[in-house]
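dumping these here so i dont lose them again. two proteins, back to back, each one seq then structure tokens. dont judge the mess
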Amino acid sequence: MRARKVFAAVLLSALVAACSGRHGEVQTHAGGAGGTSGTLTIKGSDTMVILAQRWAEQYMRQHPGATIQVSGGGSGTGIAALINGTTDVATASRTIKDQERRTIAELRGAEVTETKAALDALAIYVHEGNPVRSLSIEQLRRIYRGQVKNWSEVGGPDRRIILYSRENNSGTYAFFKERVLDDLDFAAEAQTLPGTAAVINAVSHDPGAIGYGGIGFGSGVRTVPVSDGDGPGIAPTMENATGGTYPLARYLHLYSVGEPSGLAGEFLSWVLSPEGQALVEATGFYPLPPEADATAARVAEAP
């Protein structure tokens, strides 16, 4: 399996607002709690869409002059919208690709700015009645490649494994394919669904099912600890995700063109504040580690 790049979680410093009219007119209030007014569009990751909506709702309650529009569609869809200028911020549950960065620089005339906004432990979900207690990366690879077809081959009951996956424009799909399948193809019988919530719903109704998705969507199913070798499985907890022991931990990203300013800058700064990070945890994901402990967070990301 290819070597992983390890990144330390870094909290961005506050982004000072400046006037920007890139997407609609933006006006700056003369001080007070209102901040910068205007319209901000956020598009992308289905994994992040509920979290982004909660951020937007809370921010707009506190800043009546701001309008923030949030939509999903997948990480690839959000980055494509950033390329063609139809969104201000793209949400992505995977790292932006080098080619995407180059295209944005060529077409938009500025480099991409990446904000790591939260941590996620991409979880492996099975039906709550499934007795399998741990799976290795190698076992998951063989399952999703179609080489292991029965739960009895990995310590479970004599039951056919039913595969659920995400659609190929999903950052979760791309992350899983890179980290688990070594960029090989999924088994032809894997059923693709449009979001993690749909995957979990399917798994919760099928005793033979397995699926994967963000940790913030774990209702009605059971998460399986995952090992990266012959050792014991590691549960997708906040401690294990921030400490780097859970092998499928990842950052959730916000991407913008150029250094964010105006409403975008103020909003991204607020997302990284204690209040914004409290909403991360309330939504079921994991907040970034405190700045003093940032170097302890070792989260492997696909290139």
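---- next one ----
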Amino acid sequence: MDCLEFRRRLGSEPQVVDAQARAHMEGCAACAAAAADAQAFDARVAAALAVAVPAGLADRILAAQRADVVEPFQPRRRLGWIALAAAASLLLAFGIVRYQGAAASLPDLVAAHVTSPDERDALALHTPVPMAEVEHAFADRGVKLADAPPQVVYVSECGIGRWHSVHMVSSGEGGPVSVVYIPRERAAASKDFRRDGLIAREVPIADGTLYMLAQSDQRFDALEHAWRNALEGLPKVAAGAH
């Protein structure tokens, strides 16, 4: 099973219980991270839809059933009320999810994603990932890199709200920096901000937006320059090409 087949399977089966999928995930860090992100999203949706049953609902249903024996022409009206209550609960839960998604800005969502328990362990990594993995992640998002900065120790294709991103961690002196690129969503201008105890920077680059988040902004300027060159520079020429 290759990465493309795994991602297709993941889209229909986030728990990836298939033996081939699990075997691929054990040997591919990027796909394992994508599976963890998909499972975390499913868990958040399930939690949002876990609406508490109104107190006494079971008793009211049983009472309605008993009443049907005495009043045979009333069940549709009573059961219709119960169905309406259930539908209202689902609509309320869906509305809460939609409202929360609409209320959160993209910087808020990026900060929440990189500080989530599923992503926190990536900050402790130190071994650079192969350049091919970085290029592959960007290619999946429709972006061809001219080059990629060094010291990328983690890369994953992540969904952040309605946006598709490439989430990376860059290690180096001054501590790790979470780097997130959102293609086809260009910010109006560069800005620095703070979220969840982190210093952050939002930078429009190429046709998208680059986010950097860390405890210190010591490496932000160098990383911004490197990623601008990677995303806006001339594409690399393949070996032997003229």
